[in-house]
Amino acid sequence: MCSGFCECDALLFGAVVTGQVVTNWATRGRKGHADLARRIVELTRAKGMKPGDHLAEQRFAALCGVSRTPVRSAFRLLKSNGFLSWEEEVGYSLAIDPAAAQGAEFNLPESFERQLADRILADRAGRRIGESVSVSALTRRLNVSRQTVLLALKILQTENVISQAPNQAWTFRPIPDTANALGDSIDFRLTLEPAAILAEGFALDRERAHVLRREAEAFLRAAESPGGQTEFQRLDVEFHSLIAACSGNRFLRDTLLTHHRLRQLPGSTNGATGFRLKQSMQEHIDILESLEAKQLEVAADLMRIHLRQSRNRRPSAVNRGSPALMSIMGQARP
Length: 334
What we know:
Layout: E1 9-11, E2 14-17, E3 20-23, E4 28-30, H1 31-46, H2 57-64, H3 68-80, E5 84-87, E6 91-94, H4 112-125, E7 132-133, H5 135-142, H6 146-158, E8 162-164, E9 170-172, H7 179-198, H8 206-221, H9 228-245, H10 250-262, H11 274-292, H12 296-312, H13 323-332
Antiparallel strand pairs: 1-4, 2-3, 5-6, 7-9, 8-9
C-alpha cells in the first residue's frame, strides 16, 4: 500500500527507462516518496496512460490514499529521471510510454534509518527480540547511536507498527506471522470485512477498483515467477484495504486499515501455492465485479467464501455451486 512516512532522505541515482540507464539522479527524496513514485509508475501502466497525458495531483493522491504533498514530491522524483515532464501552465505529464518502460527498476537506496527499521522488524519477525523492547537494548544490539534508534522507531511508529509504552519501552503490535496468527487474522477479518461491505454508506471508489481489477487480471495472465508471492501480497493488501476504506462505518474502516498495514510486514504471508494465489486473485475480481454492480450482499457472501478458502489454504476450486449463493447471484444479476 502507498504512504509518505519516512523522515529520512534517500539519494536517487539510477533507473532503467525504455531500455536505457538513466543515471546521476541529483534529487534527494524521502524514502516514502520513492515508494510512492514506484506506485505512480505502476498506476500509469495499469490505467493505460500514454505520453503527453496529464497527471493530476489530486487524482493520484486519491488513488494512493495519501495527501497531495507526498504526491508532488514523487512527481518531482519521476521528473528527475525523465519519466515525467513539467510545464508551468500544464503541470506534470507523461514524458514516455509507461508500457515501454515495463521492465524499469528504480534503484533507490534506502536511508540508513529505514534499513534499521526494517532490520528491527525482521528481528521481531524472527523472534530475536520480544514484543517489548527498550531503546537502550536496541542501541546495544545494533551498535548504533540512541538518536538513530529513535529515528528508526519513529518510522515504525508512524506506520502504526509499534507504540511507546508509559515505561519508555516500545511495544510491537501483534503481527500475523505464524500459522496460528494468520488463522486468527483471517477469523478476525471474516467477522469484520463482510460487515464493512454491508455497513450503511458503503461507497466504492470505482477508479481505484478499476485499477486493482486491471492489475489482478495482469497477475493472472503472468507466468509464475519468484516474485509472485511478493506481488500477490501487495495486491492482496491493496484489495482488502480498498474494501475497508470504502466502508461507511468509520470504526470498521480504521480498524481494518490498521490491520492490513500490519499484513504488509515481513513474514505476514501464508506461503500458499501458485495455484491458490491465482485462485485468490480471481476471487478478488469476482468481489470487485459484484461491488461495481452494487450487489453488496453477493459481494459480502463472496468475501466470506474467499476468506474461508484462504483460511483452509486448500488448492481446490471454490464451491460456487452452493445453491444458496447461486440463488442469490441469480436473483441479483441479469
